[in-house]
Amino acid sequence: MKIVLLAGTDQTKARLHQQMEEMFQGLFHILSYAIDTGLPETIAADLVVFSSKQVADEISEKNLLSAGQRKVTAVRTIPMDYLDQVMKLAKGERILLVNDRLETALESIEALRRIGVDHIEMIPWAPTETLPLPLPKVAITPGEGYLVPAEINTVVDIGPRVFDFSTIAAILYQTGYYQNCSKAFSEGYLKKIIHMASKLADSHREIETLNQHLSEVIDGLNDGLMVFNQEGWVSVLNEKARQLLKVPDRGKSPIALTRLLSSAELKHFLLHEEVQEKILMLFQQEILVKKLVDPKSLTTAVILKNVQETIASGNQIKRDLMRRGFFARYTFDDLIGNSEALEKVKKTSRKLAASDLTVLLVGESGTGKEMIASSIHRASPRWEGPFLAVNFSALSDELIESELFGYEEGAFTGARKGGKMGLFEQADGGTIFLDEIGDISGKVQSRLLRVLQEKEIMPVGGHEIRSINVRIVAATNQNLEALVSRGIFREDLYYRLKNGFIHLPPLRQRKEDILPLAAHFISMETKRSLLLEREVKQAMENYHWPGNIRELQNLVSYMLAVAEGDYLTLEHFPDSHFFSQGFSSSLNQKKPPVFLTPAEEKVLCLMATCHRKGEKTGRESLCRRLRELEEREGRDAHSLQPRWTFHQVRVVLGGLVEKGLIQAGTGRQGSRLTEKGIRYIEEQKYNGC
Ligand SMILES: Nc1ncnc2c1ncn2[C@@H]1O[C@H](COP(=O)(O)OP(=O)(O)OP(=O)(O)O)[C@@H](O)[C@H]1O
Fold it and tell me: What are the angstrom distances between the C-alpha of 170 and each of 33, 246, 514?
């Protein structure tokens, strides 16, 4: 028996042909034509099936069929295969239903409504129509995806509409197979419906499992959580909330908010007050209650925190951060000393703390740079963020890079799986303290410059640039200006770092602080009330403390260890080897010692060598020797400055003259070391350069 299918488009023809082949399984010989791609001159068949009424009308105008030809005009419906995707769309969502013609779009909407899709608002649209505004975010189309406007990203293609059951029944009826086959066909439909139902059951199970997980997570929260809607029904109440509000667990039965809240004050706050956060006394406990209203769904989420427990856990977090070194332990109040110099430092530091400027701290070792960095962080608006300290002198170049900037997986041999987050990212929202900044290589200097300029980092081995929000405080005990002039430190980086600048005076320049500091260190180490003998006080005040406060702290620790009575006397002093620079000689030394820049030290040292060997120390020969020396020591590869110049040598010699260490010469013989210069060299125990 021969059936001819006549459709409008080739796509519909193919889909309906496939449906008939699948359904009738060789029962009929089926031929299909589409108006779009051409019809035969005459059509002879036992039955002609039109894909729609429009097609039937168009064909009858062409007079292709003989009179009395048996015909069925199909009623088409949405295929069930993709229906679950339609059902998943959010309730009330506006959807554009896209078809080639407005009538077919309307038909598709009708078909969807007939099978019970009534939770979404469907707007019919075909390319001949203007687009509705605002444009819906989702489109549904029966196999016409290419017509969907490009602005719509979510498209649910439900496939071309197929024959509904009444059409299949009509075909069977017209061909005389109804009696024999209708049962088998209705069973086929039933199977599809069962398949649909089992798909729905699967999604239901998935949702159940998800809900279960979610409840576990919500119950596991340390805070109480409650959600209620506009009508006052509570949909979420986790275990902690039950515990804080003393509500028994009644399974899944809905709870009315008013029945749940025994405290009138809490009820009033949740339902009537404008403020969003309040501490209330509930069952003799201080509870912080926060409410957040979602204006879209008009649901209110309530977070309940036990104030005491929160403080305790906050302290635990602080302890944790401290253990990991991410916590700034000092504030300005921890800085001992009332000297004018220290007061000035504190005043400037407080001002800089309030800004977000990069700060460079310069001062000799042990003068309290790290304490100031920590205090700046604690007094800054970032005080709640992390504080990370990195000491460059202790790290190799490679380690500095990977620690600071992190790395991607496989960036180098031994790189950790999954990569590693760098310290800049870990310090997000806080402050990073870069100690001994003068020790970093040219390569790290360049990368750091980028961080300061762009506030961005690129992990080692990565291609993706990441923004960071970190304040930088750097410190050095070196003369960075001298390093810049020698090309060892980048000038641009130096000025970027020096946005905010603080010089920490050495202890010998703020002698008023020595005794209060000593007393502080004593009180830190012992509960005994110990007195310092006058001679000890004098000796302390007269010493020039090259190791600064750290050296003073060490001295106090030593004396406390050896002293037995109530007095600390000169007897408890360690011998001179304990001190970094001959204590006994400096006991009598009234004048402050001389401090040199690295360049001055180098030149003085070279002159001492020449002096010993009886060689000339004219500017020209010094410059030549300095260059040779630099060649031998290996010049920094990233050096931007020219080698030692006559001008530099002249400046350095000028400095040494000013400090009384050399005497300027006139002829080629050049400058000479003074008595003081010779003594300095001896005291410093130079071994030659
Ligand atoms: N004003 C102060 N009051 C109390 N203690 C201080 C003070 N200044 C420094 N200290 C103590 O002295 C020691 C050295 O201080 P800190 O580490 O801050 O110095 P630094 O300049 O960063 O040293 P370095 O350059 O060697 O890293 C620390 O134990 C610190 O607690």
Answer: 20, 66, 108
134 preceded by a cis bond (ω within 30 of 0): yes
Q: Does residue 668 share a domain with residue 568?
A: no
Domain presence at residue 523: yes
Best residue among 333, 343, 370 to mutate for probing ligand 1, ranked by most atoms within 8 Å of CB: 370
If asked whether residues 357 and 471 sit together in one domain, one would say: yes
Say how many domains are in the chain: 6
Ligand 1 centroid to residue 320 C-alpha, Å: 23
CA of 394 to the centre of ligand 1 (A): 18
Q: Is 477 in the pocket of ligand 1 (CB under 6 A)?
A: yes
Residue 30 in contact with ligand 1 by CB distance below 6 A: no
Which CATH number covers residue 122? 3.40.50
CATH code of the domain covering residue 252 = 3.30.450.20
Whole-structure pTM over 0.80, yes or no?
A: no
Query: Could you read off the pLDDT of 450-487 as tens digits, one per residue?
Result: 899 988 888 877 777 888 999 999 999 998 988 898 88
Is the predicted ipTM greater than 0.90, yes or no? Answer: yes
The beta-strand segments (E) located in 142-273 are 154-157, 162-163, 224-228, 233-237, 255-256
493's tokens: 């980086």
The domain in which residue 88 lies consists of: 80-159
Expressed in angstroms and rounded, the spacing between residue 525 Cα and the centre of ligand 1 is: 16
β partners of residue 363: 504
- At which of 504, 531, 556 does a domain end? 504
Asked whether 364 lines ligand 1 (CB < 6 A), one says no
